[in-house]
Fold each of these.
Amino acid sequence: MLYHSTRNKALTADSCRAVLEGLAPDGGLYMPAALPAFDWTSCLDGNALSMSADILSALLPDIPDMQKLVNLGYADKFETDDLTPTVSVGDFTVLELFRGPTAAFKDIALSILPRLLTTAKAECGVQEDILILTATSGDTGKAALEGFKDVPGIRICVFYPDGGVSPVQRKQMVTQEGRNVTVCAVEGNFDDAQTGVKNIFNGFRDKQLPFRLSSANSINIGRLAPQIMYYFKAYADLVRRGEINTGDEVNFSVPTGNFGDILAGYFAKKLGLPVGMLICASNANNVLTDFIRTGTYDKRRPLLKTQSPSMDILVSSNLERLLYLLSGDCELVASLMQQLSENGVYTIPDDLKAIIQSEFWAGCCTDEQARDVIGRVWKDYCYLCDPHTAAGWAAAEEYRNVTGDERPMVVLSTASPYKFPAAVLQALDEANENDSEFRQMEQLHDVTGVPVPPMLAGLEQKEEKHTRVIPKEDMPAFVLSL
Ligand SMILES: *Cc1c(COP(=O)(O)O)cnc(C)c1O
């Protein structure tokens, strides 16, 4: 199947190349030239693994043996066989995306992306190993390490800012097992680590290297496509429980940062799934709320630090794919992206704004409002959610109140509450007696009785394997020595 850049229809690649290259040569993102015909009703009859294989083979048809890759990618990694369970909570259905190896929703894509990459590599006749280089401010690094560990033909190196990630996040990374993994702290902040990685990509471009550099972030279609599955899975659960009939429309509320998760929902809709409204939920960094409500995207504002850090983003890179999908106009997309990089702001035409508003609704909440949701949902339904999920819940409630739309609502839950124990304890009005996040997890467990995810329980005792700290200037030499 042919893919092309969102900014230029003439820059094409087949689905293997699109996965292997990640970003198109002009800086655009790869999109299918046309979405395939898809038998969505028979897809719904399967389980999570077969749904995933059906969807991935439709979108990435040049990658062979998809069912095998999917089975290998997810085998024995998730808490439940259905990967992404749904739970009925009050008026809503919560779709739990955090039952994977690192208790964050990024596990779903990062468990399978390595298999897609190595197969695409073989199909394209690329011989050398791939080295995945990532700078992380916390969650992505660990999910990538778990996904790529011991995958043949791939190595992974993760840099994190020394002192710049939470103690639990650090411990998760420095205890990482696997023959092909390296984790290293960099003196400086996240920007230093990220700039260091970018400099390596630029500086090594024309060098003869024993490996091919690649990254694991969500601009890669191979990371986006695996996320479509859980929209089908949630819908199938509702049908099986008799809450809807096949064909009824369902709304989804999605905690949003880079716009990857919610865009996967729009892909599900384009593949035929009866998705009603997609609700884009933000925290106090509400650039997307403003955009969907007004048609103007304006990143010229301070980035606020919130209790839902994975949504602290000012430039949502996957929004570019939505602009292309809805307009079909590469020149328009190229011009909007140029305005964004030069002026930090763009405004879309009124007809495009009308289309977006017919498919998407947007809401945002403060940390205080998110804590209020966590407290209420615990008190009313004995269900514990994290601050990201709470933003999704708040937007879902606001949407219902404002519009009166009573179609079934699925709220996507993107992280375990145990990843943010301080914020959750505060929301439950529990005095936070501990500085240590590990003690806070125990306290949260004592207060609620909710089980600690297996990956986080016992973490404190695990052996630290990766304890190097280097100055940022040494990053290129460090990578060359791998
Ligand atoms: C990455 C992340 C998000 C945002 O997802 P996008 O695909 O970037 O929109 C939301 N919640 C959590 C916990 C995340 O890790």
Amino acid sequence: MKLIIPLLLFVAYTAYKTYLYASKLYRNLLDARRSGIPYIVAPVWPINRLWLALEPLLMPYLRKMPFIRDKPWLMVSSGDWIWQERYGAFEKLGDTFMIVTPRYNAIYTAEAEVINQITTRRNDFPKPIQVYGTLDLYGKNVVTSEGSEWRRHRKITSPPFTEKNNHLVWNESLYQASNMVTQWVGKDGKAGKTWDNISTDAMRLSLHVISRAGFNVRCLWPGVDDDDEQALKEGAMSTAIIPEGHEMSYVESMSTMLHRIIVVLICPDWLMKYFPSDFLKKARLAYFEWGRYMKEIYQSKFDALKKSAGTNADEKLDLMGAMISSSGLLDDDATKAPTGSGLSESEILGNSFVFMLAGHETAANTITHALYFLAMNPGTQQRLQKEIDDIFGGRPISEWNYDRDLNPLFGGLAGAIMNETLRVIPPVVIIPKSNFKSGDQKLTVGGKEVIVPDNTYIGLCAAGVQRNPKYWPHGPARSAEDGGPMHPKSNLDNDLEEFKPERWLLDPNAKPLEETSDDEKARKEAEAMGVNTAPDTANTLFRPPKGAYVPFSEGYRACLGRRFAQVEILATLAVIFSQYSVELGVEDWADDEEVEKMGEKERKDVWLKARTEAERKVRDCMGTIITLQLRKGKIPMRFAKRGEEKFMFA
Ligand code: HEM
Ligand SMILES: *[C@@H]1O[C@H](CO)[C@@H](O)[C@H](O)[C@H]1NC(C)=O
Ligand SMILES: *[C@@H]1O[C@H](CO)[C@@H](O)[C@H](O)[C@H]1NC(C)=O
Ligand SMILES: *[C@@H]1O[C@H](CO)[C@@H](O)[C@H](O)[C@H]1NC(C)=O
């Protein structure tokens, strides 16, 4: 009898919850109907945390259950569906479709015209910043703000990305890439060793580059130049040095904090502090230590700038120094609070951190993915090497020159390789937008006017639109003898799943795009806001339509570090391929000695096995945790002096 009351309460509660669920779903369904956008209904909000946690366990069963397995919502409800299904989901459901759920309605689009409208209507389609809220670890910043707050941040965070700073990025990338290559090939340059995860090294490289360009702190490469007495005297950091007052080295706290960022974001401080786990304790320590380092750098820059009354050009070269100098904090009557249009100290730290977060994995992964693709496509690699030879004419790296050498890299095969890598594997697969708080919005979808109902989540699907055959030059899919189509479901009848940088170069019909008056208005407004709208290169190359190529997003909230990242990536590729080639490791099938004895045909066979396996991993083993990268398994790679390759099949 005693159980009756709890039982009744439980039943009542369940009934109430079910009612809420059903009525919300019904209201959302009515919204979808009046919108005019094609929709499907899903029983769960796919970004619900509980669902995201359970989905990997449930999916395999749901995919087998009759009545459920064929439901379209199942295809678009896994956490990483846009990457798993690629363009396939849009081929089935349309380039723009809505998912009706018991929480929000969500629009997903792989339609360039739609993406272009949304990225250029900043007030109508703001970022759903609740998604980013927790990134305020060290202070409010440009990524986590919206509206007038965002404008204030953007005004101060955009100007530091100057050509001068890009010079620094170029110089430091050449220096760090040389060290990375030295690690791979040894100080004697003999090479030959197979490396299991070059991604770790690319991460180190990008971290070192951001440290230099962001804070003007050089980091030394463990085992390569970290015994450089001169550099250490000049203030360079190495993993071995723990300065007075610190418990962790500069480099280690920075990298540990970034690599355990999810833990630091999710776990409350008491849990990290008291839970008996070294992993958590170290994450916590790294978080605090990095905060301390940033504060010290801030203070020393602030003092130097103050002393020189803001005229010290060296201190303004890096991103943090430039932010301090235009923050208003150097004014004599400045307080610590943001004054009108300026930034506060904590906001400068917040932005410095968010630059690292935004620029670290994204750029590193792009370098790694380009190396994967080049190892799988030796013919392209050889053409790249020839082009690099033409550009640098054998000059030593110390004589490479930003003003002279960057543009030819940009406008040639190197640029096309970077573009194509980011087309096939965009680090940010979905760019979130919304009309939360901005009310019903008109939108043109498929040439027809529709309504985006109030409070809709919107996903701009970079990985989808960048393989939509409507917008991209394409040829037939790979032939069966050569392995067949690259993906089992997406773009089966064309080559858009394949890595083919030539598609950026071979467009005989390319003609300059006319700017419409709307475009011009949007551009002027954007430029006033410090958004870089300059096209990357001359228009003799293939230029995708607006909204079709969005690895850096587009419009007002486009990436601040686009040029920074491009300079870093191109410089790094140039250093590597000026002297070395990258090849797939074949150790799983044959060791060095066996390969040595093989004839041409046998070698090709073993290489093909390695290529098939690498392709499989790029296809099936990537996943998103903040950014997209290989999550399962490794793609072993080896570096060979040019001319000493084992698998250079054209
Ligand atoms: C290949 C490398 C990179 C890629 C693919 C990339 C991509 C993106 C994308 C897609 C966005 C929009 C995100 C969103 O709307 O949710 C973004 C924003 C941003 N990125 Fe990058 N990024 C890269 C490198 C960098 C670097 C190196 C930096 C800085 C050093 C940087 C700083 C930023 C910042 C500050 C924003 C926020 C801009 C705003 O909201 O106004 N990014 N990036
Ligand atoms: C980059 O390196 C060149 C040559 O070593 C040097 O002249 C130039 O001042 C450097 N630029 C920056 C911004 O560090
Ligand atoms: C690969 O990465 C792991 C984890 O970051 C690291 O422990 C390991 O030493 C790396 N392996 C190589 C060969 O660099
Ligand atoms: C790379 O993409 C950008 C952006 O669409 C374009 O302007 C540029 O011409 C492309 N570069 C090459 C070499 O195709």
Amino acid sequence: MILYDFIFLMNLCGLISVSGLFGVETHGVKTVSVMEGDSVTLNTDITVQTEDQILWTFGSVQIAEIIKKEQLNFVFVLNDGIFKEKLHMDNNTGSLTIGNIGSEHSGLYQLQISSSKVLMKRFTVTLYAPLPIPEVIRDYSHCSTSSPGCSSVRKCLLLCSVVNVRNVTLSWYKGNRLLSSVNVSEPSIRLSLPLEITCLDDSYSCVVAYSFTNRTKHPRVTELCLTCLEHLRQALVILAITSAFLMLAFIVVIALMVCRRLKCNQGKEKAQTEEKMENADIHFSKQGAQDMMCVSVPTKE
Ligand SMILES: *[C@@H]1O[C@H](CO)[C@@H](O)[C@H](O)[C@H]1NC(C)=O
């Protein structure tokens, strides 16, 4: 309070010495919260008229200015240093937009509107860490064959969580209706909020929110929330398929081994019979040759 009065006095004195006017309106400091990487607009709430002067300062640096006179329409926007390609001023209203905001842009912004009187406005831009999108998982920990009623009741336990947050509220909604919420102001490694549902539809959402912005996750409840029995059945099906494949692979390997062995034996037998046959052939061909000779001799002459 003392600090505020001090600033107020300083400002008043400064302005009086400069303009020599008493018509100074000083409004309280407006706090503007913004998430890192977002853009923020500081509104003048006026339309710039002829003979007006708009001056924006950040700390002690003049960052934007409009001077509008009969013959003159002067516009200046700083495009340097930490504000390079980040500042935009609306020429009609003098409202200032800071894009892709980072921690270096947080602090006190002062607006001085000089017309017939001088109006001062102050904005404290406060930066918040980017919000992660919440993660929703199905909690199967209560799901076992022994849990009573598990197979008959369509109950589903969901767990929504976010990591590395502070000053947030984590909530479950069904449509627009708030079901439950939890908030933290201290930095939190992981913030979780469970939800047990019996009605399976996709209108649930988990929202992590700062006071000024939020991130929402719409879980696919109907996909996530198979009943426990279905879950077990699914597991069984996967198990069955896997074992069937293993069995098949086993059979193929055995079959290949048996085949190879048979082939090997067959090969031996074949070799043996071929040997025998070769011997027989020799006898046969000798005989055949003789026969041929016997027959062929008379036909040649
Ligand atoms: C989330 O933010 C949007 C605007 O960005 C707002 O319309 C909505 O109501 C907010 N939702 C919650 C749950 O705060």
